[in-house]
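input
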Amino acid sequence: MRIFEFPSETAKKRLDTILNRDLAFKAGDMQAVNKILTDIRKNKDKALIDYINRFDAPELTAKSLKVTKTELDGARRRVDKGFVRSLNKAAKQIEAFHRYQVERSWFTTNADGTMLGQLVRPVNAAGVYVPGGQGGKTPLVSSVLMGCIPARIAGVKKLCITTPPTRNGEVNPHLLVAAHRVGVETIYKAGSAWGIAALAYGTETIPKVDVIVGPGNIYVTLAKKLVSGTVGIDIIAGPSEVLVIADEQAKASYVAADLLSQAEHDPLASAILLTPSQNQAKAVSDAVMGQMKDLPRRDIAEASIKTYGAIMVVPDLAAAFDLANRIAPEHLELQVEEPFQYLDRIQNAGAVFLGSYTPEPVGDYIAGPNHVLPTAGTARFASALSVDHFTKKTSIVYYAEKALKRDAADIIRLAEIEGLTAHARAVRIRQERYTSKGHK
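output
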């Protein structure tokens, strides 16, 4: 793994390559996804089944699009008790974390004759997209928990999952058991852009929803981007990324393992170490190359590390935090002595992992915070998936007659400055009522 001296020109060039890696959508992909969305919107189930038959399950029909109770019951018998224990532990901890995010409606009543407030209400319907993972062989169970739990806590009444079926039209039993654990029994066998389109526009079988969340491939991401505005979405996610800040005391093997845990996701994934120690930089570089040898996904990790990985030797930890805030990583690990004392230095990060015994995967699966995080520098303005994504806020305004009388002149003046005569009249006509009643 290459080591760079920051802020040398070589290091800056490498950083620019990482920050500007090809996250743009290709015109051909945009056209293909647009065609799919239009087709589903117009032809509904007919088009949906056609895409599913062509790309996933050749024999699936509209009648078998929804997972049945028999399939759900059968799934419970096909998973082992160890999985169920781990699933329950993760679900409980994720539920506990997200309950703290719940906002309440609020109101203020004032002696001047006004009442103001905000209603917090859940959306009526939401869809959680769950990738199939290698034809259903590696089901993303954690995506079920991270998408469905905050929706349930928000109070969403109609919650469903869409996921691509296997070639024989099934859904992995681990995924079905996870769905049942979080109280979701409405599961549709529809993946890719056509699954997103079905959720956004509705078909004869799949009702339209108000919000769509969940990760996916380029077609899923593009479809979510294009239907945004018709429905709410969580984020436009790019490839995974981790940035580790490590001092001399950090264990090189731990740092290397954490860098590779993200590099194995995708050739476009980014893994960066910032350290003021030359010795640490060399030790981590050697450890990365050594650990990579026995990785089943070695080819992917090697491509990521080669093009978008970097070890940056910085002047000091202050420089490391300045650079980390510029990068705004999805995952930020602090493998430094007394990591808590540096929290106030962090401005931009999707999630922060403190200390040598908090590797990023604990956040992926079990700690509690959501693992759907802003990527590609969007942590400058975006946040993790939360209960908020499944709620909407409505402002409440009440003015008594005396309150409107007090503010009328100012409202009229501001409306007329903007050239909105009817706005001004809506207030002035009530002033005339004051006069007719003998008010001054």
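quick obs: The chain has 16 helices and 14 strands.
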